[in-house]
Amino acid sequence: MLGPADQVEGRRFGDVDLVVRRWPLPLWPFLRWEVLSGPDGSVLHEQLVRAPDSPVPAAAPDTLRVWEHVVDDVVGLPGAAAVDPGVPSRFEVHLPGAVRAQFVRGLLQRVDDGAPG
Question: Which domain holds residue 72?
Answer without folding.
Answer: 56-117
